[in-house]
Specification:
Strand content: under 5%
Largest sheet: none
Low-confidence stretches: none
Distance between the termini: 94 Å
Order of helices and strands: HHH
Structural class: mainly alpha
Helix content: 55-70%
Number of strands: 0
Length: 88
């Protein structure tokens, strides 16, 4: 007599379980995407960030060399700044 009309048939139980697990699945996928983006972006998830500058004189001289190569400073400015760095 009752058949599928008692409320726990395919209409109520299946879609209730499907959407419940579907929501959990979507949240899991969203969490994975957020973690991947966080790990891929510059500096994300890596305490040894290669973009951080150290205060070693060699690093400053490398920076000056790069600026000279890019044409941001002249040779005279390069020599002046390099001399100033060696004074410190």
């Amino acid at each position: 007599m009752g058949g599928m009309m008692n409320g726990s048939g395919m209409g109520g139980g299946f879609f209730g379980n499907f959407f419940g697990f579907g929501l959990i699945f979507l949240l899991l996928i969203a969490a994975i995407v957020v973690i991947v983006i966080w790990m891929v972006k510059p500096g994300g998830g890596n305490s040894n960030n290669r973009n951080t500058t150290t205060s070693s004189p060699e690093n400053h001289e490398d920076t000056l060399k790069n600026r000279l190569a890019r044409g941001e400073i002249s040779e005279e400015e390069y020599d002046r700044l390099k001399k100033k760095l060696k004074e410190k």
